Amino acid sequence: MSKFFTSREIFFKTPFIVKTSGGIASQLMALISAVYISQKIGRPFKIQHYPHSTGGYYPLAIQKLLQNDEIHNPIKKIRGLGDFMEVPAGSIIDSHPLMRKQFNYLKLVQLLTKLRIDIVLNLFRLEWQIDTSTRRLERCPRIVRSISGGYPPYFDARVKSEIYSRFMLAGIAWPVTHTSGKIKKIVIHYRLADRRTAFSKPGIGGAVNAIVDPQSFRTILENFENDTDFTVTVVSDEPNVAKRLLEGVGIKAEIEGSSNDLWDDLRIMGSADVLICPWSTVSQFMATLLNGDPLKKVYYPEFPGVPQKIKWKLDGVNYYRAEFLPESHSVYVDSYLSPANKNKEYPV
Prior knowledge:
- By secondary structure, the chain is an alpha/beta fold.
- It is about 30% helix and about 15% strand.
- The chain has 10 helices and 10 strands.
- It has helices spanning about 1-10, 25-40, 105-115, 115-125, 135-140, 155-170, 215-220, 240-245, 260-270, 280-290; strands at about 15-20, 45-50, 125-130, 145-150, 185-190, 230-235, 255, 275, 295-300, 320.
- Helix 2 (about 25-40) packs across helix 6.
């Protein structure tokens, strides 16, 4: 009997693995899910990051928010990638398996995911796939060995307290602030970057991740046309391009700050009285933080592209139907490299 309880005690002290990929915002969303499940099942966790799995190169960038024993194999290569020329963080890897025409292991994984077969297969190794579902997040079993994405927006009081504490201990300013002036601050987050290759490199993200038509933002701003005391700020991975797109539909937006890194972008978004978002993990993270704040208003798209079933919802968010720029638009280019002053929050 004592051996049984000893084994049981050891098991529940064993960390479960949290598989992450993508940029900082995706990593933050994974951290939120990790904290929630850790609190729910009473077990610690370790982050196992895959910097190349999305088709771009995104190193682990949330080390400051993690304890040393919460990082597990931070450099994890994917099958079939092989050697490749070093690229800046956030850049597409041209030799990536997802870019190849022939069928390969990663494309098989994509097919299994599309058919939802991978969820069942992963259960045999006690991996619980969250599948961007709030319901699956809440039902994660205690015996889980690992969890994998996608990770939905989710915050309760205990999780928020833990994430806030991690920001404070890391010396990172909490993004959410409140303005005291009478002028309403409207911030538009305009996601561009590798979405400019949505059609030329459909293996990376796909056309469903095309760029939002700025007219969709203009339609939302019409709700405030009778309010003369407001300013519009644009936050983007390519702010000058975003500003020109907005000007094309008559939106005069300013670019705030010059550091142009994600932590600064989050601070600007968190200072907004009104935040208008595209479909983006950066926007999902901030919508999660701002949701429920009576002094903040958030607009978020109903769908990332064509209408589809979404497995999560933030009750306090205003959802809108976004339109997207067509493939013929000049904003789409054959290649994309991150701006030199961008992504400095990633380790070199």
